[in-house]
UniProtKB/TrEMBL annotation:
InterPro entries named in the record: Methyltransf_25, SAM-dependent_MTases_sf, Trans_acon_MeTrfase_C
Name by which UniProt lists this protein: Trans-aconitate 2-methyltransferase
Domain Methyltransferase: from-to ranges: 37-124
GO MF assignments: trans-aconitate 2-methyltransferase activity
Record CDD domains: AdoMet_MTases (cd02440)
Keyword annotations from UniProtKB, A to Z: Methyltransferase, Transferase
Gene Ontology terms describing biological process: methylation
Amino acid sequence: MQDWNPALYLQFEAERTRPAAELVARINHPGANTFTDLGCGPGNSTALLRNLAPNATITGLDNSPAMLAKASAALPDCRFEEADIASWQPAVKQDVIFANASLQWIASHKQVFPHLAAQLAGGGVLAVQMPDNWQEPTHTLMRQVADELGISRSSREALLTAQEYYDLLAESGCTVDIWRTTYFHVMPAPTASSMTGAC
C-alpha cells in the first residue's frame, strides 16, 4: 500500500476535522491524563485532544510515516508512534482512547472493539467515529469501477450495525452512547479529490 499524502488529506481539513471536533466535545472525563489517538493522521484530531487536555500525556498512532512526520512537526509536545491499531497494546491503560475515521479500515470489529475497551483504565472513555459510507453512491461506484477494471480493491469491510456495536461494547462493560450523523459538504465544484488521501 502506498503511503498517505498529508498535503492532499489536509486540503479538506475542515471537513475531515468536524466529526472529530464533535466527538471530542462529547468526552466527559475531566481527570483524564493519558490519551491515545488511534489513526492520528497528520495530527488534526490529536490537536483537538491537546486543546481538551493541555497537561495530559497524548500519544498518536498511525501506520503512515508521512502522516506521523507531519503530526510530529505540528505537535512536538505529543508522542507519535508507527503502530498497527488491531494489535496495539499500551504499556499503561489509557484514560481516553480516541479513533476518528480510522477503525473503518480495520477488519474484525467483533474482536477489535472488546480489545480496545480492555485497554481502558477504570472509568476510561473509548470515543470512536467511523464514516459509514460503504453504501453511499461514491463508494458503491468506486467498487463497481474497480471490479470492471480488474483492479484489486481495499479489503475494507462494511461496518456492523449500531445494535451490534452497542452489544459488543455493553458486553465489554462499557456504558454506551451511540448516535449517527449525516454530514453534507458543499464543495466549490464537482470533484472526486475529497474522497482521496492516499498516493
